[in-house]
Amino acid sequence: MKKEQKKFIIKNYSWKTFFIFFVLGSLFGTYYEEILWYIKYHEWTSREGLIFSPLSPIYGLGVLFYILLLGKKNEERSILKTFLYSYLIGGFSEYLTSFIADVIFGVKFWDYSNKFLNIGGRTSLIYMIAWGIMGTILMKIIYHFLCKYLKKIPYVIGNIIYYLIFILVLLDVLITYTAFGRMALRNANIEPFTIVGEIYDKYFSNEFMYQKFPIMKPSEEHSSEEISDDWEKDTLIGHSFFGIDEISYTGSKEAFLIGYDKGIRTFEVDLGLTKDEKLVLIHDWSIFNTFSSIPTEEEFLKTKILNKYTTLSLTDLLNLMEEYQNIFIVTDSKYTEEESIKKEFQYLVNKAKELGKEKILNRFIIQIYNENMYDIVEEIYPFKNIIFTLYQRWNGSDYLDFENIVKWSKEKNIKGITMWNYLYNDTIKEIITRYNINIYVHTENDINKAKEFLKNGVTGIYTDFIGEKDLEE
Question: What CATH architecture does domain 224-472 belong to?
Protein backbone atom coordinates (compact mmCIF):
# COMPACT_ATOMS: atom_id res chain seq x y z
CA MET A 1 0.00 0.00 0.00
CA LYS A 2 1.44 3.36 -1.04
CA LYS A 3 2.14 5.71 1.87
CA GLU A 4 0.12 8.96 1.65
CA GLN A 5 2.37 11.95 1.04
CA LYS A 6 2.22 14.69 3.71
CA LYS A 7 0.71 17.96 2.52
CA PHE A 8 1.95 21.48 3.27
CA ILE A 9 -1.60 22.63 4.12
CA ILE A 10 -4.41 20.31 5.13
CA LYS A 11 -7.13 22.71 6.27
CA ASN A 12 -8.26 26.02 4.75
CA TYR A 13 -8.57 27.56 8.21
CA SER A 14 -5.04 27.30 9.68
CA TRP A 15 -2.15 29.52 10.87
CA LYS A 16 -0.22 28.88 7.68
CA THR A 17 -3.20 29.97 5.61
CA PHE A 18 -3.59 33.09 7.73
CA PHE A 19 0.02 34.14 7.15
CA ILE A 20 0.03 33.35 3.43
CA PHE A 21 -3.07 35.44 2.86
CA PHE A 22 -1.63 38.25 5.00
CA VAL A 23 1.43 38.37 2.72
CA LEU A 24 -0.60 38.10 -0.49
CA GLY A 25 -3.02 40.80 0.70
CA SER A 26 -0.12 43.09 1.66
CA LEU A 27 1.52 42.55 -1.72
CA PHE A 28 -1.73 43.22 -3.56
CA GLY A 29 -2.32 46.37 -1.49
CA THR A 30 1.03 47.90 -2.42
CA TYR A 31 0.58 47.58 -6.18
CA TYR A 32 -3.14 48.36 -6.06
CA GLU A 33 -2.37 51.67 -4.29
CA GLU A 34 0.54 52.49 -6.61
CA ILE A 35 -1.61 51.94 -9.70
CA LEU A 36 -4.41 54.11 -8.29
CA TRP A 37 -1.87 56.81 -7.43
CA TYR A 38 -0.45 56.71 -10.96
CA ILE A 39 -3.92 56.96 -12.52
CA LYS A 40 -4.73 60.00 -10.34
CA TYR A 41 -1.37 61.84 -10.33
CA HIS A 42 0.47 60.38 -13.38
CA GLU A 43 3.54 59.44 -11.35
CA TRP A 44 4.79 56.30 -9.64
CA THR A 45 5.04 56.71 -5.87
CA SER A 46 5.98 54.01 -3.42
CA ARG A 47 3.06 52.84 -1.30
CA GLU A 48 5.02 50.20 0.57
CA GLY A 49 4.35 49.96 4.28
CA LEU A 50 7.54 48.19 5.36
CA ILE A 51 11.17 49.23 5.05
CA PHE A 52 12.57 46.24 3.19
CA SER A 53 9.72 44.40 1.50
CA PRO A 54 7.04 45.59 -0.96
CA LEU A 55 4.18 44.94 1.46
CA SER A 56 1.34 47.15 2.69
CA PRO A 57 0.31 45.73 6.09
CA ILE A 58 -3.00 47.62 6.19
CA TYR A 59 -4.26 45.43 3.35
CA GLY A 60 -2.65 42.34 4.85
CA LEU A 61 -4.36 43.07 8.15
CA GLY A 62 -7.70 43.53 6.41
CA VAL A 63 -7.33 40.21 4.57
CA LEU A 64 -6.24 38.51 7.81
CA PHE A 65 -9.36 39.77 9.59
CA TYR A 66 -11.51 38.57 6.69
CA ILE A 67 -10.06 35.04 6.92
CA LEU A 68 -10.12 34.90 10.72
CA LEU A 69 -13.68 36.14 11.07
CA LEU A 70 -15.29 34.85 7.88
CA GLY A 71 -13.21 31.75 7.03
CA LYS A 72 -15.38 29.40 9.04
CA LYS A 73 -18.79 28.70 7.51
CA ASN A 74 -17.74 30.71 4.46
CA GLU A 75 -19.56 28.39 2.06
CA GLU A 76 -22.82 28.68 4.01
CA ARG A 77 -22.84 32.46 4.22
CA SER A 78 -24.75 34.47 1.60
CA ILE A 79 -23.03 37.01 -0.65
CA LEU A 80 -25.00 39.86 0.96
CA LYS A 81 -23.94 38.86 4.48
CA THR A 82 -20.35 38.44 3.33
CA PHE A 83 -20.41 41.95 1.84
CA LEU A 84 -21.87 43.50 5.00
CA TYR A 85 -19.35 41.76 7.26
CA SER A 86 -16.50 42.69 4.91
CA TYR A 87 -17.74 46.28 4.86
CA LEU A 88 -17.45 46.49 8.65
CA ILE A 89 -14.24 44.47 8.96
CA GLY A 90 -12.42 46.53 6.30
CA GLY A 91 -13.49 49.81 7.89
CA PHE A 92 -12.43 48.59 11.33
CA SER A 93 -8.98 47.45 10.16
CA GLU A 94 -8.39 50.77 8.34
CA TYR A 95 -9.51 52.76 11.39
CA LEU A 96 -7.38 50.64 13.74
CA THR A 97 -4.24 50.96 11.60
CA SER A 98 -4.67 54.73 11.32
CA PHE A 99 -5.27 55.04 15.08
CA ILE A 100 -2.11 53.07 15.93
CA ALA A 101 0.07 55.04 13.50
CA ASP A 102 -1.33 58.36 14.74
CA VAL A 103 -1.49 57.83 18.51
CA ILE A 104 1.50 55.55 19.06
CA PHE A 105 3.94 56.57 16.32
CA GLY A 106 2.83 60.16 15.70
CA VAL A 107 2.40 59.87 11.91
CA LYS A 108 -0.42 59.70 9.38
CA PHE A 109 -0.47 57.76 6.13
CA TRP A 110 -3.91 58.99 5.12
CA ASP A 111 -6.39 61.57 6.33
CA TYR A 112 -10.00 61.48 5.16
CA SER A 113 -11.09 64.51 7.22
CA ASN A 114 -12.23 66.32 4.08
CA LYS A 115 -13.95 63.28 2.59
CA PHE A 116 -17.72 62.77 2.58
CA LEU A 117 -19.02 60.54 5.41
CA ASN A 118 -15.59 60.09 6.99
CA ILE A 119 -15.20 58.57 10.45
CA GLY A 120 -12.70 60.63 12.42
CA GLY A 121 -10.64 61.10 9.27
CA ARG A 122 -9.46 57.49 9.62
CA THR A 123 -11.89 55.72 7.33
CA SER A 124 -14.96 56.58 5.31
CA LEU A 125 -18.35 54.95 4.79
CA ILE A 126 -17.76 55.35 1.05
CA TYR A 127 -14.33 53.69 1.10
CA MET A 128 -15.77 50.94 3.28
CA ILE A 129 -17.88 49.93 0.26
CA ALA A 130 -14.62 49.14 -1.57
CA TRP A 131 -13.52 47.07 1.44
CA GLY A 132 -16.87 45.25 1.30
CA ILE A 133 -16.48 44.46 -2.40
CA MET A 134 -12.87 43.30 -2.01
CA GLY A 135 -13.79 41.15 0.98
CA THR A 136 -16.66 39.53 -0.88
CA ILE A 137 -14.48 38.74 -3.92
CA LEU A 138 -11.79 37.35 -1.61
CA MET A 139 -14.06 35.09 0.41
CA LYS A 140 -16.38 33.91 -2.36
CA ILE A 141 -13.86 33.40 -5.16
CA ILE A 142 -10.18 33.79 -4.29
CA TYR A 143 -10.06 32.13 -0.86
CA HIS A 144 -11.47 28.78 -1.96
CA PHE A 145 -9.51 28.81 -5.25
CA LEU A 146 -6.11 29.51 -3.63
CA CYS A 147 -6.64 27.10 -0.74
CA LYS A 148 -7.31 24.36 -3.30
CA TYR A 149 -3.87 24.91 -4.87
CA LEU A 150 -2.06 25.49 -1.57
CA LYS A 151 -3.05 21.96 -0.56
CA LYS A 152 -1.17 20.60 -3.58
CA ILE A 153 2.19 22.07 -2.48
CA PRO A 154 4.61 19.34 -1.27
CA TYR A 155 5.22 19.36 2.49
CA VAL A 156 9.02 19.89 2.50
CA ILE A 157 9.20 22.56 -0.22
CA GLY A 158 6.15 24.35 1.18
CA ASN A 159 7.58 24.50 4.71
CA ILE A 160 11.01 25.71 3.58
CA ILE A 161 9.51 28.58 1.60
CA TYR A 162 6.90 29.32 4.28
CA TYR A 163 9.32 29.61 7.20
CA LEU A 164 11.87 31.56 5.17
CA ILE A 165 9.27 34.16 4.16
CA PHE A 166 7.79 34.15 7.67
CA ILE A 167 11.17 34.98 9.28
CA LEU A 168 11.98 37.69 6.71
CA VAL A 169 8.56 39.36 7.00
CA LEU A 170 8.63 39.12 10.81
CA LEU A 171 12.05 40.80 10.91
CA ASP A 172 10.88 43.50 8.50
CA VAL A 173 7.78 44.21 10.61
CA LEU A 174 9.85 44.39 13.81
CA ILE A 175 12.48 46.67 12.28
CA THR A 176 9.92 48.92 10.59
CA TYR A 177 7.73 49.47 13.62
CA THR A 178 10.62 49.89 16.03
CA ALA A 179 11.95 52.47 13.55
CA PHE A 180 8.61 54.28 13.78
CA GLY A 181 8.80 54.00 17.56
CA ARG A 182 12.33 55.46 17.62
CA MET A 183 11.17 58.24 15.29
CA ALA A 184 8.40 59.16 17.76
CA LEU A 185 10.92 59.26 20.62
CA ARG A 186 13.33 61.30 18.52
CA ASN A 187 10.59 63.83 17.78
CA ALA A 188 9.99 64.09 21.52
CA ASN A 189 13.72 64.92 21.97
CA ILE A 190 14.37 61.65 23.81
CA GLU A 191 17.94 60.46 23.35
CA PRO A 192 18.69 56.77 22.58
CA PHE A 193 18.87 54.53 25.64
CA THR A 194 21.10 51.92 23.99
CA ILE A 195 23.38 51.41 21.01
CA VAL A 196 20.35 50.03 19.13
CA GLY A 197 18.70 53.45 19.33
CA GLU A 198 21.89 55.07 18.04
CA ILE A 199 21.95 52.67 15.09
CA TYR A 200 18.31 53.48 14.33
CA ASP A 201 19.04 57.22 14.48
CA LYS A 202 21.88 56.74 12.01
CA TYR A 203 20.25 54.44 9.46
CA PHE A 204 16.52 55.16 9.94
CA SER A 205 16.58 58.93 10.44
CA ASN A 206 13.53 61.12 9.85
CA GLU A 207 14.92 61.99 6.43
CA PHE A 208 15.14 58.29 5.55
CA MET A 209 11.64 57.55 6.84
CA TYR A 210 9.98 60.39 4.92
CA GLN A 211 11.74 59.33 1.73
CA LYS A 212 10.85 55.68 2.25
CA PHE A 213 7.21 56.49 3.00
CA PRO A 214 6.54 59.58 0.82
CA ILE A 215 2.84 59.93 1.69
CA MET A 216 3.52 59.87 5.43
CA LYS A 217 3.13 63.11 7.35
CA PRO A 218 3.37 64.21 11.02
CA SER A 219 0.12 63.59 12.86
CA GLU A 220 -0.09 66.97 14.58
CA GLU A 221 -3.58 68.38 14.23
CA HIS A 222 -3.62 71.21 11.70
CA SER A 223 -5.29 74.42 12.71
CA SER A 224 -8.30 75.47 10.64
CA GLU A 225 -8.37 78.93 12.28
CA GLU A 226 -8.56 81.86 9.88
CA ILE A 227 -5.35 83.80 10.49
CA SER A 228 -3.39 86.28 8.42
CA ASP A 229 -0.52 87.50 10.61
CA ASP A 230 0.20 84.45 12.74
CA TRP A 231 3.49 83.88 10.92
CA GLU A 232 5.06 86.93 12.59
CA LYS A 233 5.46 85.00 15.81
CA ASP A 234 7.65 82.40 14.08
CA THR A 235 11.36 82.76 14.83
CA LEU A 236 12.44 80.40 12.04
CA ILE A 237 11.68 80.38 8.32
CA GLY A 238 12.53 77.21 6.44
CA HIS A 239 14.83 78.11 3.55
CA SER A 240 13.70 76.49 0.28
CA PHE A 241 11.36 74.51 2.53
CA PHE A 242 14.26 72.98 4.52
CA GLY A 243 17.45 71.02 4.11
CA ILE A 244 17.39 67.28 3.62
CA ASP A 245 20.27 64.82 3.79
CA GLU A 246 22.54 67.85 4.41
CA ILE A 247 21.42 69.26 1.04
CA SER A 248 19.85 72.71 0.58
CA TYR A 249 17.66 74.15 -2.19
CA THR A 250 15.74 71.00 -3.20
CA GLY A 251 12.35 72.68 -2.66
CA SER A 252 10.97 69.14 -2.53
CA LYS A 253 7.99 67.64 -0.76
CA GLU A 254 10.35 65.54 1.35
CA ALA A 255 12.20 68.69 2.45
CA PHE A 256 8.88 70.27 3.46
CA LEU A 257 7.96 67.25 5.58
CA ILE A 258 11.33 67.32 7.33
CA GLY A 259 10.95 71.04 8.08
CA TYR A 260 7.39 70.63 9.30
CA ASP A 261 8.51 67.77 11.49
CA LYS A 262 11.19 70.09 12.93
CA GLY A 263 8.51 72.58 13.98
CA ILE A 264 8.85 75.01 11.06
CA ARG A 265 5.55 76.63 10.09
CA THR A 266 6.73 79.45 7.81
CA PHE A 267 8.61 78.35 4.71
CA GLU A 268 10.41 80.25 1.97
CA VAL A 269 10.15 78.67 -1.48
CA ASP A 270 11.89 79.48 -4.76
CA LEU A 271 9.59 79.88 -7.73
CA GLY A 272 10.34 79.68 -11.44
CA LEU A 273 8.46 79.58 -14.73
CA THR A 274 8.70 76.50 -16.94
CA LYS A 275 9.03 76.51 -20.71
CA ASP A 276 5.24 76.51 -21.00
CA GLU A 277 5.05 79.35 -18.43
CA LYS A 278 3.74 77.32 -15.50
CA LEU A 279 4.92 78.13 -11.98
CA VAL A 280 6.92 75.44 -10.17
CA LEU A 281 9.22 75.22 -7.16
CA ILE A 282 12.82 75.50 -8.33
CA HIS A 283 15.77 77.59 -7.15
CA ASP A 284 17.31 77.84 -10.61
CA TRP A 285 17.31 75.59 -13.64
CA SER A 286 21.00 74.74 -13.43
CA ILE A 287 20.90 73.53 -9.83
CA PHE A 288 22.13 69.97 -9.21
CA ASN A 289 22.65 69.65 -13.01
CA THR A 290 19.15 68.17 -13.17
CA PHE A 291 18.00 70.13 -16.22
CA SER A 292 20.08 70.97 -19.29
CA SER A 293 17.43 73.46 -20.40
CA ILE A 294 14.17 74.86 -19.04
CA PRO A 295 11.61 72.01 -19.13
CA THR A 296 7.85 72.07 -19.49
CA GLU A 297 5.79 71.61 -16.33
CA GLU A 298 5.07 68.00 -17.29
CA GLU A 299 8.76 67.27 -17.82
CA PHE A 300 9.63 68.98 -14.54
CA LEU A 301 7.11 66.99 -12.51
CA LYS A 302 8.31 63.70 -14.01
CA THR A 303 11.85 64.46 -12.81
CA LYS A 304 13.24 63.70 -9.36
CA ILE A 305 15.74 66.16 -7.89
CA LEU A 306 18.97 64.17 -7.46
CA ASN A 307 16.93 61.16 -8.63
CA LYS A 308 15.02 60.90 -5.34
CA TYR A 309 13.31 64.14 -4.25
CA THR A 310 9.78 64.98 -5.41
CA THR A 311 9.37 68.10 -7.55
CA LEU A 312 6.32 70.31 -6.95
CA SER A 313 4.17 72.58 -9.07
CA LEU A 314 2.22 75.59 -7.81
CA THR A 315 -0.87 73.37 -7.78
CA ASP A 316 0.96 70.93 -5.52
CA LEU A 317 1.97 73.80 -3.24
CA LEU A 318 -1.61 75.08 -2.98
CA ASN A 319 -2.82 71.57 -2.18
CA LEU A 320 -0.14 71.28 0.47
CA MET A 321 -1.25 74.58 2.01
CA GLU A 322 -4.84 73.39 2.02
CA GLU A 323 -3.79 70.21 3.79
CA TYR A 324 -1.52 72.00 6.28
CA GLN A 325 -3.64 74.99 7.20
CA ASN A 326 -1.16 76.38 9.73
CA ILE A 327 1.72 77.00 7.32
CA PHE A 328 2.75 80.20 5.54
CA ILE A 329 4.77 80.50 2.36
CA VAL A 330 7.33 83.22 1.63
CA THR A 331 7.80 83.62 -2.13
CA ASP A 332 11.27 84.00 -3.61
CA SER A 333 10.56 84.67 -7.26
CA LYS A 334 13.99 86.08 -8.23
CA TYR A 335 12.44 88.16 -11.03
CA THR A 336 12.81 91.96 -11.12
CA GLU A 337 11.66 92.62 -14.69
CA GLU A 338 8.10 93.97 -14.74
CA GLU A 339 6.85 91.54 -17.38
CA SER A 340 8.17 88.48 -15.50
CA ILE A 341 6.79 89.74 -12.17
CA LYS A 342 3.34 90.25 -13.67
CA LYS A 343 3.40 86.89 -15.41
CA GLU A 344 4.41 85.02 -12.25
CA PHE A 345 2.03 86.63 -9.75
CA GLN A 346 -0.90 86.72 -12.14
CA TYR A 347 -0.40 82.99 -12.64
CA LEU A 348 -0.30 82.50 -8.84
CA VAL A 349 -3.56 84.38 -8.32
CA ASN A 350 -5.33 82.80 -11.31
CA LYS A 351 -4.35 79.28 -10.28
CA ALA A 352 -5.57 79.81 -6.71
CA LYS A 353 -8.91 81.13 -7.99
CA GLU A 354 -9.19 78.36 -10.58
CA LEU A 355 -8.77 75.72 -7.86
CA GLY A 356 -11.19 77.48 -5.51
CA LYS A 357 -8.38 78.23 -3.06
CA GLU A 358 -8.29 82.05 -3.13
CA LYS A 359 -8.36 82.24 0.69
CA ILE A 360 -4.98 80.52 0.74
CA LEU A 361 -3.46 83.65 -0.83
CA ASN A 362 -3.77 85.22 2.64
CA ARG A 363 -1.06 82.81 3.76
CA PHE A 364 1.43 83.84 1.09
CA ILE A 365 4.12 86.30 2.17
CA ILE A 366 5.30 88.08 -0.96
CA GLN A 367 8.97 88.96 -1.06
CA ILE A 368 9.60 92.17 -3.00
CA TYR A 369 13.08 93.22 -4.11
CA ASN A 370 12.54 96.92 -4.72
CA GLU A 371 9.93 99.64 -4.30
CA ASN A 372 8.69 99.35 -7.88
CA MET A 373 7.89 95.67 -7.46
CA TYR A 374 5.48 96.55 -4.65
CA ASP A 375 3.34 98.63 -7.04
CA ILE A 376 3.38 95.88 -9.69
CA VAL A 377 2.27 93.20 -7.24
CA GLU A 378 -0.39 95.45 -5.66
CA GLU A 379 -2.00 95.97 -9.05
CA ILE A 380 -2.40 92.23 -9.44
CA TYR A 381 -3.78 91.30 -6.01
CA PRO A 382 -4.06 92.90 -2.53
CA PHE A 383 -1.80 90.43 -0.73
CA LYS A 384 -2.04 90.85 3.06
CA ASN A 385 1.56 89.93 3.78
CA ILE A 386 4.56 91.51 2.08
CA ILE A 387 8.19 91.46 3.14
CA PHE A 388 11.03 93.56 1.67
CA THR A 389 14.10 91.45 0.86
CA LEU A 390 17.23 93.53 0.38
CA TYR A 391 19.76 91.25 -1.29
CA GLN A 392 19.10 92.87 -4.67
CA ARG A 393 18.48 96.37 -3.33
CA TRP A 394 20.90 97.28 -0.52
CA ASN A 395 24.54 96.25 -0.13
CA GLY A 396 25.07 97.36 3.48
CA SER A 397 27.08 100.52 2.92
CA ASP A 398 24.55 103.39 3.04
CA TYR A 399 22.62 103.45 6.35
CA LEU A 400 20.66 106.54 5.34
CA ASP A 401 19.35 104.59 2.36
CA PHE A 402 18.49 101.70 4.67
CA GLU A 403 16.55 104.05 6.93
CA ASN A 404 14.64 105.38 3.92
CA ILE A 405 13.75 101.79 2.98
CA VAL A 406 12.46 101.21 6.52
CA LYS A 407 10.42 104.44 6.45
CA TRP A 408 8.91 103.51 3.10
CA SER A 409 8.13 99.98 4.34
CA LYS A 410 6.31 101.33 7.39
CA GLU A 411 4.23 103.63 5.20
CA LYS A 412 3.23 100.68 3.00
CA ASN A 413 2.46 98.45 6.02
CA ILE A 414 5.12 95.98 4.93
CA LYS A 415 5.59 93.29 7.58
CA GLY A 416 9.36 93.25 7.76
CA ILE A 417 12.81 93.64 6.23
CA THR A 418 15.06 90.72 5.27
CA MET A 419 18.83 90.96 4.85
CA TRP A 420 22.00 88.89 4.74
CA ASN A 421 22.98 87.71 8.22
CA TYR A 422 26.45 89.29 7.99
CA LEU A 423 24.96 92.77 7.42
CA TYR A 424 23.07 92.88 10.72
CA ASN A 425 24.76 95.08 13.36
CA ASP A 426 24.02 97.58 16.13
CA THR A 427 23.26 100.37 13.63
CA ILE A 428 20.64 98.24 11.92
CA LYS A 429 19.25 97.27 15.31
CA GLU A 430 18.91 100.91 16.36
CA ILE A 431 17.06 101.84 13.15
CA ILE A 432 14.60 98.94 13.17
CA THR A 433 13.96 99.46 16.90
CA ARG A 434 13.25 103.16 16.36
CA TYR A 435 10.75 102.39 13.59
CA ASN A 436 9.39 99.26 15.30
CA ILE A 437 9.63 97.00 12.25
CA ASN A 438 10.49 93.31 12.08
CA ILE A 439 13.92 92.29 10.82
CA TYR A 440 14.84 88.87 9.38
CA VAL A 441 18.26 87.52 8.42
CA HIS A 442 19.27 84.78 6.00
CA THR A 443 20.70 82.16 5.90
CA GLU A 444 21.91 80.94 9.30
CA ASN A 445 22.56 77.28 10.13
CA ASP A 446 24.66 77.66 13.27
CA ILE A 447 22.41 77.20 16.31
CA ASN A 448 24.52 79.34 18.66
CA LYS A 449 24.70 82.20 16.16
CA ALA A 450 20.96 81.91 15.55
CA LYS A 451 20.29 82.23 19.27
CA GLU A 452 22.55 85.29 19.43
CA PHE A 453 20.69 86.95 16.57
CA LEU A 454 17.36 86.35 18.29
CA LYS A 455 18.67 87.74 21.56
CA ASN A 456 20.02 90.77 19.75
CA GLY A 457 16.81 92.06 18.20
CA VAL A 458 16.33 89.86 15.13
CA THR A 459 12.71 88.78 14.66
CA GLY A 460 13.35 85.63 12.66
CA ILE A 461 15.96 83.60 10.82
CA TYR A 462 15.91 81.82 7.47
CA THR A 463 17.56 78.43 7.96
CA ASP A 464 18.22 75.14 6.21
CA PHE A 465 18.72 72.90 9.20
CA ILE A 466 17.71 74.51 12.52
CA GLY A 467 14.35 73.40 13.92
CA GLU A 468 12.26 75.02 16.64
CA LYS A 469 13.15 72.16 18.92
CA ASP A 470 16.86 72.90 18.41
CA LEU A 471 16.37 76.43 19.75
CA GLU A 472 14.72 75.06 22.87
CA GLU A 473 17.77 73.03 23.85
Answer: Alpha-Beta Barrel (3.20)
